[in-house]
Write a structure and sequence with these properties.
Elements lengths: L1 H13 L7 H5 L11 E11 L4 E10 L11
Antiparallel strand pairs: 1-2
Amino acid sequence: MILLAIALSFLAAAQPFKDVDKEELALTNVVFAPGAPAVVLDWTVDRDEDHSSETESDRIKVLTDEGKKYANI
């Protein structure tokens, strides 16, 4: 468990999240998916062919209480 926490801390340090905009914080609904419980704000995939690794980062915005289940990762 400790090794997992250390590995995740290194991963988080390597790929910092961008700053959250005030508009993102105030977001309660989106035009392209009315009533959605959560939406993806940013999705990136980084591939390192030299080390045969792939890192995927997702930023989501929870819009309703039902959307909280998508934030549990």
